Amino acid sequence: MKIKHMAMICAAGFMAAQPAFAHRMWMLPSTFTLSGDDQWITVDGAISNDLFFPNHHALDYRNVQIYTPSGEAESVEDGWRGRYRTAFDVHLTEQGTYRIAEEGSAWMAFYEEDGERRRQRGSLEELQEAGFFDNPAAEVFHSRRNVETYVTLGALSTTAFAQTGEGLEFRPVTHPNDVYAGEEARFAFTLGGEPAAGLEVEIVKGNDRYRDDPGTITAETDENGEFSFTPEDAGRYWISTSIRGEGEHNGHAIGVGHSYVVTLEALGL
Amino acid sequence: MRATLSFTALSLLAGAASAQSVDLGIELPRLNVAEYHKPYVAVWISEPDHSVVANLAVWYQLDDGPEGHGEDWLKDIRQWWRRTGRNLEMPVDGVSSPTRGPGEYTLSFSSDDDRLRNLEAGSYVLHIEAAREVGGREMISIPFEWGEDVEANFSESGSEELGGVSLSIRP
After folding, report:
1. Residue A97: closest CA among chain B residues belongs to which residue?
2. Cis before residue B144, ω within 30 degrees of 0?
3. Contacts of B69 in chain A (CB under 8 A)
4. Contact of B146 with B124, CB cutoff 8 Å
5. How many CB atoms lie within 10 A of CB A19?
6. Do the strands B21-28 and B40-46 form a parallel or antiparallel pair, or are they unpaired?
7. What angle is formed at CA A165 by the lines to CA A163 and CA A167, rounded to 5 degrees?
8. Residue numbers of the domain that contains B110
9. What confidence tens digit (pLDDT) does each residue in A23-39 have?
10. How far apart are CA A181 and CA B92, in angstroms?
């Protein structure tokens, strides 16, 4: 299935949505920067209020793809999903940068029945079979999410960076494993492969549980889709943005949303 | 204790009229801690903008031990790892050597040494970074001028993981 509607949003313009989720999705690797020839890391994935404490809902390791330095995409073969957190190990055997991505896609239809607004979740096929696409009174909504992190064994590399040209994608300018406290880090977003200007980006340092003020940093992408921020302290940072707008699927108007999250580590100088 | 390290390559080409000699003093303090591991130490020279021009020494666990591969922890010398370590194929001949315990060490180099031969006259920074397992990490940076007939002495004191550090350049 090829989804073209993101390109449509890009042409038609889109609204940068306010954070579409009250809770924060994240993936957290045990180590971001490694040396040696052969290493293991363990990764947690959750949706929670506090960063990075699992306390609400688990992500699912079965939705995770590992993009290796040589450009392969591998699924996670062995993992565990508990109530609040999923966990899986990644065996790093290649030198370079790995991208670990939880990729979710959900379809929903809103319709009225007996004067009440109802919602039905299901696969694209299920919603098609149920006739929602042909029902002018129904609204179909497709939401996607990418929850990522980057880990490097040895020298930095960039082959694992996303470059499908489809949907909302993170395009690092500063390498995600080359972020340091006190130094400006610059990243970009693309939508349908084109710079995504005007996106509101939210940046929160981990351990907000222990701060009265979470210290959220907001940034807006410029005409090149780029934004920058300077992490004040060493630590783990959560970066998130999302879009919401109108799209189409096989000629039918639908609503679309795409959320993106990346967890990065800033090291001290 | 004072140990002098000599590097075989440097004596072969020594004797040129312009040869400078460089002595580095590094003190690793004795620490009164329950669990002591010898620190990983890296010594390198960069331009003022941090681009690395010479790796002088990396002390780390060269052999695999009961706690794993020594190279696993090289990234904990985190500034060195960022600036140069992660792009090196370890071990590096003449640069890699085993960890050392508390003591005072002198590293002597000649400007004819492979690592310094291509160093053009100008401003540089010497960096000494130490990171200890279950311990702290400390880095000392000493800016210096390099050129013919330079004579200079610098000394700095570390606070935790490094003791006295000195750099002496003589014609």
Report:
1. B86
2. no
3. 36-38
4. yes
5. 14
6. unpaired
7. 110
8. 2-170
9. 899 999 999 999 999 99
10. 29
Secondary structure letter of residue B12 according to DSSP: H
- The C-alpha angle with vertex A181 and arms to B76 and A243, in degrees rounded to 5, equals 115
Tokens of B65: 């031990």
Q: Which residues in B have their CB inside 8 Å of a CB on A?
A: 69, 71-75, 78-79, 81-82, 85-87
Beta-carbon separation of B87 and A155 below 8 A: yes
Looking at this predicted complex, what is its ipTM?
A: 0.84
Angular region, B84: left φ>0, alpha ψ -120 to 50, beta rest: alpha
What is the least distance, in Å, from the CA of B72 to any CA of chain A? 5
Question: Which residue type, as a one-letter code, is found at position A166?
Answer: E
Suggest the residue from B71, B133, B139 to mutate for an interface test with chain A (most A CBs closer than 10 A): B71
| B79: chain A residues, CB-CB within 8 Å | 269
Using a CB-CB distance cutoff of 8 angstroms, which residues of chain B are in contact with residue A268?
78
| Per-residue pLDDT tens digits for B120-145 | 999 999 999 999 999 999 999 999 99
In whole angstroms, what is the distance from residue B106 CA to residue B135 CA? 24
Total domain count for chain B? 1
Distance CA B131, CA A267 (A): 14
Pairing of strands A33-34, B122-131: unpaired
Q: CB-based contacts of A218: which residues, under 8 Å, 6+ apart?
A: A200, A201, A202, A203
Question: CB distance B86–A155 less than 8 Å?
Answer: yes
Nearest to A260 by CA among A120, A152, A143: A143
Q: How far apart are alpha carbons B14 and A214 in whole angstroms?
A: 60
Q: Residue B146 belongs to what H/E stretch?
A: strand B137-146
pLDDT band at A136 (very low <50, low <70, confident <90, very high): confident
The answer to whether residues A237 and A6 touch, using CB atoms and an 8 Å cutoff, is: no
Q: Output the six-digit token pair for A116.
A: 């009440």
What are the residues of chain A with a beta carbon less than 8 Å away from any beta carbon of chain B?
A: 33-39, 152, 154-156, 178, 180, 267-269
